[in-house]
Amino acid sequence: MKKEKFLEIVRSKAKATLTAEDEAFFGAIGDAVEQAFQNDAVERQKQIDSVLEKLGTIEEGKTAAQIIRSLTEKVVALEEKSKRNLSEGERNILRKKLEEKKEDILGVIRRQKTTPWSLEFRMKRAASAMMTTATVVTGAVASDSTNVFDDVDIEFIRYPKNFILDAVSSRQVSRVPESWKWKEQVTSGDGVPAVVAEGNAKPLVDYKFEWKYAYRKKYAGRIEMTEETEIDFEQLVLDIINMFEAEVLRVYNAGVLADIIAWAPTYAGTALDATIVKPSIMNVVNAGKLQLARNEYMGDTLVINPADYAETQNMQNINGDPIFIPDSVLFPGLSLFVTNNITAGTILLGEGSIVKEQHGSFILRSGTYGNQFIENEKTIIGEIFSILKLTTESKKGWVKLDVATVKAALQKLPSN
């Protein structure tokens, strides 16, 4: 505010004419006010220049506040786009992994566990089979009705239970070794201990061993799909991934069982041969148990085809009346596995702890190859590694029973 303007205001408000002394007094105040306003303006300009220097060039017609607000909105939008909730399938997988590490986690919380531990979570969220949207809806029938119940459940093909985890000595490891090496006693040794008279030489007992090896196998497969399928049928794609994983595991399960069947020796005859008038499958199994017992093993695992198992459930007396005998009576002390992975007419019996198996976690990967990237397609690979220890000497603890052959061996011949 200028000095003259200040004096003009004072004169207009004064009730009497200002004296020369009054003019001088109020003039000094006006000078001070004018100086204060000038200093304040200079300081404000310095602060504004400093802010503008830090902000850089501001787009013409926009204030700094508008530009900052616009940037904030863009950051928030990017954060929202980057968020993705876990699907139900992913939550189940993570929950399972956490359950496996429950004791480790509780130990850390209670400060009772100090050894390092880890949680391996290798599953990737991906999708399913080489198909397009049209492939998924193949077979659909058009309907004009508005009274429709959309059933979200999916009907799956039934498959047998997993044999490996319950029948043999199996465990999961973080890394499956390429080979498994062990020492095995060779049956052809020299000498046996005996009663020795005074002054006579003791028998020389010589044991022989040799190295044996087993090698890792990989059970794997792949499925392919278009991105449109994943977008249009998200839940179905997750279900198909679960189906794919189960199918790879079934092949792994069948592969291990096939190796055991090929390794197990056949029936070699027992004291039951030629002693049974009308042999049944129950007698066949008992003959197998006797062969194992003769070799100092105890059979506890029985694998049988559904057709052979049905024969044990449909017995009749001489009058044709049905006879029902529970499994616990037919096959006492045996864990029963009924599966089509063994041929009808063949029964596998053995001591489960003899067979050792190690496997890794199921691995699921997704990627593209060839022209898939430009064709909007992807490939999903699923695999599991396994190594199976089948020793030469311990194979005496298992037996492969050909039903027809063993029945013929057990058949009591008519007396002349």
Task: Explain what this protein looks like in three dimensions.
40% of the residues lie in helices and 19% in strands. The protein contains 13 helices and 13 strands. Strands 1, 4, 10, 11 and 12 form a five-stranded mixed sheet that branches. A four-stranded mixed sheet has the order 8-5-9-13. It has a two-stranded antiparallel sheet with strand order 2-3. Helix 1 (3-13) crosses helix 2 and helix 10 crosses helix 13. The radius of gyration is 43 Å and the shape is elongated. The model is unreliable at 121-130 (pLDDT under 50).
Instruction: Report the portion of residues in β strands.
Output: 15-25%
The structural class is alpha+beta
Mind telling me the CATH superfamily name of the largest domain? hypothetical protein PF0899 domain
Instruction: Report the end-to-end length measured between terminal Cα atoms.
Output: 145 Å
Helix-strand pattern: HHHHHHHEEEEHHHEHEEHEEEEEEH
Biggest sheet: strands, sense, closure? 5 strands, mixed
**Overall geometric form:** elongated
Question: Segments where pLDDT lies below 50 for 5+ residues?
Answer: 121-130
- Helical percentage: 25-40%
CATH fold-level topology of the largest domain: hypothetical protein PF0899 fold
Radius of gyration: 43 Å
The number of distinct structural domains comes to 3
Mean pLDDT: 77
CATH class of the largest domain: Alpha Beta
Q: Quick one: how many beta strands?
A: 13
Tally of DSSP helical segments = 13
The second-level CATH architecture of the largest domain is: 2-Layer Sandwich
